Amino acid sequence: MPHYNKVGTHLRKLAIALVMGGVSVSVQPTSSRAQTLRIEATSTSMDWNAVALANGHVFVAGPRWTGFTGPAVGILTKSKDVTPFPNAQWNAWKPGQEAMHRFVSVNALHTAPDGTLWVVDTGTPSFGGTPVPDGAKLVRIDPATGHVLRIYPLGSGITQAGSYVDDIRFNGRHAYLTDAGKAALIVLDTETGQARRVLENHASTHAQPGRPIVIEGHVVESRPHHPLLVNVDPLEVSPDGKWLYFGPLEGPWSRVPTALLDDPGVSSKTLAAAVQPWADLPPIGGSAMGADGTLYFTALKDNSLYRRDASGQISKVISDPRLHWADAPALASDGRLWIPVAQLDRLPQFHQGHSLIRPPFLLVSVDLMHE
């Protein structure tokens, strides 16, 4: 039976201190009602680290470098099986093939405000490798029909050797992306297709060696005695569209006015000077922001889901050992938060070639409306 970390039967007025990844965070006790996970789907062939909900469908994705055989992007059927989306051809890329019209290695899915599904293709088939020609791109898809509406190439200086385009959020005609490999934000005008790199190697986008990713008491290493460092990774747009929140996977998070990001005439010096500290969050797998400004994030150290309300107060929603490297979640209209559990730190790349994966991979959800 899973163990649920529940604090008492009554709310305490005093905050408790929770040390996560070496960062002391003030946390309010959880509610008296024990939260439970609902398993939505499982897989032994797809290490999913992304989920999106659009047009009544559930979409999942996982990067190629994990070594699993499932599709890059899939749609859940009524029987909870996963079939390639938008079709088999898009999911059939092989080394040496044309990459603009196939998924090379997908790291993120996101549903735009207009209901379309956006796929973030890193174009990088190996972990820490170089994007293949025409591989790095965004693909905008009609979730109802599977029709590819537009492809946004991210080559031509937007991605570089070592780039890893990680995630995406939207604000009007602009989209913001993170480059977790080469430490920069990418600003895309979705109407013109023009993209720019900003805050490149700025302190706010660069991982800090003193903040390692610690899971179950062990530092995640890219190779022996070298902690895994992931540059700017999670990001969210404030509900009023005025701020972009972002940070390295290991934290902390910063914020910058979107009005400055959106203006190509703003100098790099002016933009850098406008960056402000926002939240000293621990290493996280992924995040989602509600319409009221509540940030939900999965903390890697203790297999938990937390919420940070608009006032900055943090509380735990649920702890469960099955939430091991719970990755980028998605909020559903019915108040459930869908979470793909990727177990990324258990992959052979981080254990000298030995896999510690515990199958199956889980896609779970949590009811946020009745805590």
Specify the helix fraction band: under 10%
Number of helices: 2
Largest sheet, in brief, is: 6 strands, mixed
Distance between the termini: 21 Å
Q: Which parts are unreliable, with pLDDT below 50 for 5 consecutive residues or more?
A: 1-33
Which structural class is indicated by helix and strand composition?
Answer: mainly beta
Radius of gyration, taken over Cα atoms and rounded to an integer in Å: 19 Å
Determine the oligomeric state from the structure. Answer: single chain
- How much of the sequence is in beta strands? 35-45%
Shape: globular
Average pLDDT taken over every residue: 91
Which strands sit side by side, in order, in the main sheet?
Answer: 1-2-27-26-25-24
Overall strand count: 30
Describe the structure.
The protein is mostly beta strands and 371 residues long. The chain has helices spanning 258-262, 268-273; strands at residues 16-20, 23-28, 38-43, 50-54, 57-61, 73-76, 82-84, 106-111, 117-121, 137-141, 148-153, 165-171, 174-179, 184-189, 195-198, 214-215, 218-219, 221-223, 226-227, 232-237, 243-248, 253-257, 276-279, 284-289, 295-299, 304-308, 314-319, 330-331, 336-341, 361-367. Strand 1 and strand 2 (23-28) form a beta hairpin. The protein starts with 15 loop residues before the first strand and ends with a strand.
Using brief descriptors, characterize the structure shown:
disordered N terminus; 371 residues; globular; mainly beta; 4-stranded antiparallel β-sheet
